[in-house]
Design a protein that fits this description.
The chain is of the alpha+beta class. It has four helices and four strands, in the order βααββαβα. The protein has a four-stranded antiparallel β-sheet, with helices on one face.
């Protein structure tokens, strides 16, 4: 069973193309995390929020990543992090073409 980690936090920017350039090394490093499958990056310049939806192979891998990432964000001065972990219902997700494999 796969697990989703949903993470969001307040951030003043950058967003859009500037975010893509500035965070590309971080994006590449996430690929090396234990049990990581994929990430969808999220951003809202209007509400000054950013984050992501991550898919991990196990609940443990998702939890370890959330813990590490929360500490990393604190190093950037971001301390109000909303993070949740959910099990993926693969049968229903496949009906809706969700990328769970």
């Amino acid at each position: 069973m796969a697990f989703i980690a949903q993470v969001d936090f307040k951030m003043d920017g950058p967003f859009g193309d500037e975010m893509a350039v500035g965070f590309s090394d971080l994006a590449k490093s996430i690929n090396e995390e234990e049990g990581f499958i994929w990430k969808i990056w999220t951003e809202s310049p209007e509400t000054k929020e950013a984050g992501g939806i991550y898919l991990f192979e196990t609940k443990e891998a998702a939890g370890e990543y959330v813990e590490m990432h929360t500490k990393r964000l604190a190093g950037f001065g971001i301390t109000d992090v909303n993070a949740k972990i959910f099990a993926v219902n693969s049968q229903l997700t496949e009906i809706n073409s969700g990328p769970v494999k």
